[in-house]
């Protein structure tokens, strides 16, 4: 059998970094092939090479036996290669169908395109309304747009860069069914994920990268998750340490917070009340699009709310903007890393200053103290093991996981009184995810309050003291995490609130 894709000696260097070093392997038709490696191992660079976004310095590729050197994504797509990115490349102001049409060489009339989108999304179980504006969709729904856009191209190789990090377990199952169907139809899938259990359930071959090189190949179905993790990192991974829970006084109090959605299709927050005490981690679970972004916005100060709804240590911050809240000690790290949490084309120093300026004293008489900003950025880089040539690198040049470590580290190191994070370990490898969770737990152990909004239930159960769920903008009454069972969580996520599971 001719391999679908053959890579031979692919090498790519960036200033100060060898992103890919002499990479060779094959992908067979219909194969679901995992590409594994810790943050910065070179996975994205390699798949961008296959997709025509990066030109390798050396090496060659063959697709179905023929030389393959796409000079741009359009050439890769024409050859049957499609890709779903870790960061979405959609225009928020346009509708689903308009976005899909933009990626096509010769898009059909809008009405036909809308029908094709409906057909494909139904065939593959990925419900999508072609007329909705992308800006109003949740992360999970945006990903569906990207996937459907790819499926319309009838790809022979579909590349997916961390597709499940924005999905609920149920949505992930739907995606796996889609991918298995595609593979049964003969398409190959190159699949990047840090979730090793899902790799083991889905993929039949795996190539492991470390420091830009291939360090191993295996059948993940026959390799344990611990083994895979060790081969990626080269050392053993330690689990998070539990911490004593000695809870202090209430720090953050949210009382009867209701907010109309910022956009037509957003989610309204409905009478949200919660309390976070010193030393506590409150976990908020829920399916994306149920008000997570709105809640983060209402806590960070991007959205203001009625007087008395948001208070920190008794100080009413409901009408205070983000800067005033930061000065008071209420910090937030949003889900969307590039664009929202970090300015892509600014250096890490500038990005560190963006949120750290007041708490770290980085300005004097209205002027940024560059040296101080650089040291702060460097401190984040060192303490959070952000792999980058230095603080002068742009946010955009970092691998996804490394940027996430930077964004979380930047907030944690500002010694917040209360930190609110949304999807803190999105796209972060297992070792770094453990380090981020540990940092959040250390923060709480030091007396801060932490709110973790996440779709990752295992993560929430691992770090939270109390657990609550956000459903259609309503928060269920919090329960001690130690009492949570999967059944009970399922009911809470479904909006059944405090209901007990039925006893039979
Ligand atoms: N455009 C660029 N300019 C400079 N350095 C880059 C650029 N793109 C990638 N790099 C560097 O190349 C290395 C490999 O990055 P890459 O994004 O391929 O890693 P990755 O394995 O996909 O990581 P992650 O799991 O965090 O997404 C990293 O050190 C990264 O900082």
UniProtKB/TrEMBL annotation:
<keyword id="KW-0067">ATP-binding</keyword>
<protein>
    <submittedName>
        <fullName>ABC transporter</fullName>
    </submittedName>
</protein>
<dbReference type="InterPro" id="IPR050107">
    <property type="entry name" value="ABC_carbohydrate_import_ATPase"/>
</dbReference>
<dbReference type="InterPro" id="IPR017871">
    <property type="entry name" value="ABC_transporter-like_CS"/>
</dbReference>
<dbReference type="InterPro" id="IPR027417">
    <property type="entry name" value="P-loop_NTPase"/>
</dbReference>
<dbReference type="Pfam" id="PF00005">
    <property type="entry name" value="ABC_tran"/>
</dbReference>
<feature type="domain" description="ABC transporter">
    <location>
        <begin position="252"/>
        <end position="497"/>
    </location>
</feature>
<dbReference type="InterPro" id="IPR003439">
    <property type="entry name" value="ABC_transporter-like_ATP-bd"/>
</dbReference>
<feature type="domain" description="ABC transporter">
    <location>
        <begin position="5"/>
        <end position="236"/>
    </location>
</feature>
<keyword id="KW-0547">Nucleotide-binding</keyword>
<dbReference type="InterPro" id="IPR003593">
    <property type="entry name" value="AAA+_ATPase"/>
</dbReference>
């Amino acid at each position: 059998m001719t391999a679908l894709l053959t890579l031979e000696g692919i090498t790519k260097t960036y200033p100060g970094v060898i992103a890919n070093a002499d990479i060779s392997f094959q992908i067979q038709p219909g194969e679901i092939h995992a590409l594994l490696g810790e943050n910065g191992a070179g996975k994205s660079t390699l798949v961008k090479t296959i997709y025509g976004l990066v030109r390798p310095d050396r090496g060659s590729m063959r697709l179905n036996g023929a030389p393959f050197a796409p000079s741009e994504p359009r050439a890769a797509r024409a050859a049957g290669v499609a890709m779903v990115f870790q960061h979405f490349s959609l225009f928020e102001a346009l509708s689903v169908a308009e976005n899909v049409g933009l990626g096509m060489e010769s898009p059909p009339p809008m009405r036909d395109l809308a029908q094709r989108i409906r057909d494909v999304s139904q065939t593959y179980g990925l419900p999508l309304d072609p007329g909705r504006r992308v800006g109003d969709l949740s992360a999970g729904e945006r990903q569906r747009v990207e996937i459907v856009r790819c499926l319309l191209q009838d790809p022979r190789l579909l590349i997916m860069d961390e597709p499940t990090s924005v999905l609920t377990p149920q949505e992930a199952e739907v995606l796996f069914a889609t991918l298995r169907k595609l593979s049964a139809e003969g398409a190959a899938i190159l699949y990047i994920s840090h979730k090793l259990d899902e790799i083991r359930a889905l993929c039949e071959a795996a190539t492991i990268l470390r420091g830009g090189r291939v360090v191993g190949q295996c059948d993940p179905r026959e390799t344990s998750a611990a083994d895979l993790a060790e081969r990626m990192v080269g050392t053993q991974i330690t689990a998070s340490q539990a911490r004593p829970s000695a809870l202090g006084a209430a720090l953050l109090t949210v009382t009867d917070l209701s907010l109309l959605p910022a956009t037509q299709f957003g989610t309204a927050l409905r009478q949200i009340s919660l309390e976070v005490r010193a030393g506590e981690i409150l976990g908020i679970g829920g399916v994306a699009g149920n008000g997570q972004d709105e809640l983060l916005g209402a806590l960070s100060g991007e959205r203001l709310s009625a007087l008395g709804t948001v208070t920190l240590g008794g100080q009413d911050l409901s009408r205070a903007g983000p800067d005033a809240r930061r000065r008071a000690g209420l910090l937030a790290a949003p889900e969307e890393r590039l664009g929202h949490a970090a300015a892509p084309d600014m250096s890490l120093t500038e990005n560190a200053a963006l949120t750290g300026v007041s708490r770290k004293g980085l300005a004097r008489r209205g002027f940024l103290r560059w040296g101080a900003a650089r040291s702060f950025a460097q401190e984040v880089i060192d303490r959070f093991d952000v792999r980058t040539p230095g603080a002068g690198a742009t946010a955009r040049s970092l691998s996804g996981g490394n940027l996430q470590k930077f964004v979380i580290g930047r907030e944690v190191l500002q010694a917040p009184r209360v930190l609110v994070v949304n999807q803190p370990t999105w796209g972060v490898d297992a070792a770094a995810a453990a380090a981020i969770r540990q940092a959040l737990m250390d923060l709480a152990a030091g007396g801060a309050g932490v709110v973790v909004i996440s779709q990752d239930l295992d993560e929430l159960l691992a770090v939270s003291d109390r657990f609550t769920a956000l459903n259609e903008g309503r928060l269920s009454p919090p329960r001690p995490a130690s009492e949570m069972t999967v059944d009970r969580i399922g009911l809470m996520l479904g909006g059944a609130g405090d209901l007990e599971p039925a006893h039979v």
